[in-house]
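Key idea: predict the complex, not the pieces.
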Amino acid sequence: MSSPFLAACRGESHDVMPVWFMRQAGRALPEYRAIREKHSFEDVMTTPELAAEVTLQPIRYYDVDAAILFSDIMTPLIGLDMGVSIQPGKGPVIEQPIRSREDVARIRELEPSNDIPYVMETIEILVKELDVPLIGFAGAPFTLASYLIEGGASRSYAMTKSLMYADEDLWHDLMSRLANLSAATLRAQVRAGARAVQLFDSWVGNLSPFDYTRYVLPHSKKVFESIEHLNVPRIHFGVGTGELLQLMAAAGADVVGVDWRVPLDAARQRLPDQVGTQGNLDPAAALGPWESVEEQVRAVLRRARTKRHIFNLGHGVLPQTPPDTLKRIVELVHEEGSTGVFDR
Ligand code: 1CP
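Result:
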């Protein structure tokens, strides 16, 4: 399989700028909504034939250069019976949020083949069907901790930060267990056939660089180190992480996600030469009329003149995005981001 996506991850030469979208499988696609009318999110995720079908839908529709497994960052915690559910319109909800030493002790080691067998079964179906690489993924320890402690989504992360500052030992115990969980999930996905992995630390941009270094970096680093020997590209993603990009690369990533708040050339300057970038179009930019979308895509491409960039949105596809716009974005990136635009 010759893949511009894998080549860009590795900084190898390729002809066409690769593009895929975070949350490319999901509510923007009518065929996804049709499946969700009949099955809950958890049913889709735990039924390999359905999860594989939903993973394939965006590949057929958009002609993107990579597939991402249809699952969730909370899946391993669901597998451990931590009282997590995914609620429509809300996202993850935790029945009994984690606040004490006893709560943290409930997070045991994950045994992927027993706890989340459907994930590997889905991947085994997909590797036979796909002609683009499959990205496996996990939630990073901080983002998982934030859901477990807050009980769901949050604006301020007040409870998460309170625990972090009040009881550093307990915090590191929690983070260390979650790092083992993320690492075990990623290893199992790669062994089943995932060709690259992405560690989602979506909400870590809420921390200062100082706190990131002290409370998060050692744990995310452990996740990346534990999969180094598997030799697949490692992508590290977060939102609002302009001031953390260097540290996120230092955790051991080959590619770092950049959201729309940081111009790509500025991000490039913050990163070592051998580390690639991914992302950068504002997901809301895809809601505009095509002339406006085109202008925004071209603006990203002008600053992405390197063979180490993977075009993506700076965060997930918004549910109201017209799927045809995403399709046209793929065409435009492939047309404009081809041989000749790469400076280095
Ligand atoms: O159908 C539905 O109503 C469920 C919506 C949905 C979907 C489609 C959820 C609940 N999860 C998913 C799939 C999902 N989640 C994927 C599939 C692959 C793809 O990208 O196409 C992936 C990679 C995720 C990862 C995920 N889940 C993240 C990291 C990425 C990000 O968006 O920052 C996070 C933070 C979650 C938590 C989550 N799960 C679901 C929702 C709505 C949320 C976010 C809630 C919040 O804002 O806190």
